[in-house]
Amino acid sequence: MTSQYSDSVVRSITEHLASRDFASARSLICDDQHRALIYECAWDLLLPALLALEEDSKEGSVKTEDCLRLFKEIVDRGKPKEVLLSLIEHLSQIKSTTVFVVALEGLQKVLLSIPTKRRAFLQWALPAIERYLTSLPDPQNQLLDDDTQRVLQDADPAVQMIVGCLEAALNFLLPFVQEVRLTSCDLLSVEKMGVEVLGQRQQLQHHLFSILGRCGVLHTYNLPEKPKSSAYNLAEKLVNAIAYLSSDLAALSFSVTHEDYKNMPATCDSDNDENDSSEGECMPHVPEISSAMLAYLLYVEFLASGSVPCVYSQRYIFEKNLGNITFLLSHPVYVLNYKGVALCGALIAKQSRGQYSSLDLDNSALTVPLHRLVKVMVMCPLKDVRERAVKVFCSYLKVFDSSARYIIYCHLLRAEEGAGIRGFLIDLFRADLHQWTPNIVEHENPFGSRNIVNILRIVCVLPQREETDLLNYSDCILAVLNLLRYVALTSLKQCSRDVSDRILSMAEVYGEQLKKGLDLSRAHYTLKLKQVEGKIAGKAKDYPDSTLLGIGDGALPNLPPEQEMDVMKAALARFDLMECVLVLAQDCLKLVSGC
């Protein structure tokens, strides 16, 4: 058969595909006279067939099935290696989920038809699939503030596309997973497994983890009396597939540092004993999002619980997952923040109260999640996530003993600048202080008088002295005043003269600055209120239009006069509240000091 004739037949088939004349194209492909030609020229026909299939699926054409059959004929009749390379090369040009699924089915069929060099061919195909999955856009509507809204996630076209592609990739891998899945024999001796089997197992684990990590941006919920989400069903299948290749999912979920990676074998190609793990398995290099996602599914959703050995203590599991918790809480995607809070809460609930002492704080990984929880409590736009983060934060503090908690309070109060979170921390410190009776010996009390002085030295400060924006800083101010009042009523009598004098001195300076600030702020807002009342009364010309509200450096649009007046009155009421609490605190301090 001449080259000219071959080119003519290929050109005719391509033209028929372009004109959507699939019947004519199929007749040429299925003609026995052209079998050898199609076998050699399948590379040139696959891309036109994929493009035609993509165009038809986009338009919802009735000829889509004809085009699909034609594509399968080319895959069946082409040279396997040529078809394999062509599909891998053209995978990046596919935009339709439907066509991606079809292409993976063809790729899987070709790979299964090649009995040798399975691992080498997978090494060509899997990176192309991973690149395609990575290129998929994340869902835009992630601010689902309650379980009712999250149920609607499956109706999002972006979610449907991601789940469809990820499930297609999983289905592509499953036959190859079954080829090298663990058996009871494998668990007894690594010598009974060949290097190819070990290598393929590690290779498949890596790509299953890649798919699992891509699931991280989806709500994998399993709500009572509601159907499981499509993302949850997919995650469940992925975890089960990974369990086929590993007898210890807990170890795979542990967060791994860069130093750990240096000490791990990169591949399983060596027969050296140092590359043989104690379980006869190679540990794949798991991306952070994948190990975090696996930990969430194991300890929050309780998937594949039978693959988590009982030899690990709850403390060990918690410490090995600190990196996962930190990663999820630090991520800019709020869905991952939700999972980080849930994972942290699930693991903290299994820890003993006061199990960590101040000596354990040398491990900074223990305290980093506390900072990340604070950021979620303040910055996350999802109300239920913020509220849950507050509860988890309080539970987290309880795994430290009192001396460690005191150090943590000092550290956080120095690090955090937000008035709301500082007020929250001061209230927690006061609650801890209340638990210690005054009869305990001073040197045994982590919340003793000298430590109280250290805390007061940190909190009895106005950032800009009397010029501080008291309205924005009011939460912290009220917490400080309540702490001073509590100390005056309970602890001050037990203090030495030197310590009590220092406390009284700090309280006096703080009270004077606050009183000046309140006078200035009240005068300012009273003037604003008069201006607004003048507007409402139709006398705005008598007052300059200077009422401007803002957040930080950004100004908000002008409010209607009635709303402006409500804002001013609320501010003045807040100042009155602060002054009342200030007077109460000062009276208590004077009473105790004998003034």
How does this model look, in words?
The chain contains 26 helices and two strands. A hairpin with a 2-residue loop joins β1 and β2 (554-555). It has a two-stranded antiparallel sheet. The protein has helices spanning 3-18, 22-30, 35-59, 64-77, 80-90, 97-113, 118-135, 147-151, 157-179, 184-188, 195-214, 230-245, 249-253, 258-262, 288-299, 314-320, 322-330, 334-348, 368-379, 383-398, 402-415, 419-435, 449-459, 474-490, 497-536, 561-593; strands at 550-551, 554-555. The chain has a domain at 401-549 and 557-593. By secondary structure, the protein is mainly α. It is elongated, with a radius of gyration of 33 Å.
What would a concise description of this structure say?
66% of the residues lie in helices and 1% in strands. By secondary structure, it is mostly helical.
List keywords for this structure.
66% helix; Glomulin; 595 residues; YAP-bd/ALF4/Glomulin; mainly alpha; two-stranded antiparallel ribbon; Glomulin/ALF4; ubiquitin-protein transferase inhibitor activity
